[in-house]
Design a protein that fits this description.
3-stranded antiparallel sheet, 3-stranded mixed sheet, about 45% helix, binds zinc ion
Length: about 150
C-alpha cells in the first residue's frame, strides 16, 4: 500500500512515535520503514531479510520496537512467521486477500464508493446488536494466481 502521507512527514511521525516510547529512529529502523512503505504488501521477516544483508535478530527486535511504538502492525496468519506492514493510520484503510495454499498476503484495493457502502451495512449490523463506534478489519481468503497456476 502506498503511503497516504508524504515521505518526509511519514518519517517525522515515525520519529515522534518512537520518541514517545523512549526509542530513537535509528538507521535500520528507518530502513525497515522504507522497505515496508515500498513493498505494497505485508512482508514476512524472511522476505524483509532477502538479499539485504540485515541481521535477523536485529530486524526482529527493531520490528518489535516499531510495533510497540504503533508504527508497524503485525498480521497474525496461519503461517509460521507473522507479516508486517505500516500501521493503517500511517498509510490508509485497506483490506487483505490471503492465499489459503501458500499464505501470501496482498493488499486489496477497493473503490471508495464500495468501501463506504460496505461500511454503512456493517455499521448497521453492529448497531443492531448494540455496538457503537464500529470499524472493521476484513480478510478475504482465496487461492493466489501462482498457486492456481501450479495446481
Ligand atoms: Zn474497509
Ligand atoms: Zn498462493
Amino acid at each position: 500500500m502506498m503511503s497516504g502521507v508524504a515521505t518526509g512527514e511519514l518519517h517525522d511521525t515515525v520519529r515522534a512515535r518512537l520518541l514517545a516510547v523512549g526509542q530513537r529512529y535509528t538507521h535500520q529502523r528507518r530502513r525497515l520503514v522504507e522497505i515496508l512503505t515500498r513493498s505494497g504488501n505485508p512482508l514476512t521477516i524472511p522476505e524483509i531479510l532477502r538479499g539485504r544483508g540485515l541481521a535477523q535478530s536485529s530486524v526482529y527486535r527493531n520490528l518489535g520496537d516499531l510495533e510497540r511504538a504503533g508504527v508497524v502492525r503485525r498480521l497474525v496468519t496461519d503461517e509460521e512467521y507473522g507479516r508486517y506492514e505500516l500501521s493503517e493510520d500511517l498509510t490508509e484503510h485497506h483490506h487483505h486477500v490471503i492465499c489459503s495454499r501458500c499464505g501470501t498476503v496482498q493488499d486489496l484495493p477497493m473503490r471508495a464508493e464500495v468501501e463506504r457502502r460496505m461500511e454503512e451495512t456493517l455499521g448497521r449490523l453492529a448497531r443492531s446488536v448494540g455496538f457503537a463506534e464500529v470499524s472493521h478489519r476484513l480478510d478475504l481468503i482465496g487461492v493466489c494466481a501462482s498457486c492456481a497456476q501450479g495446481s
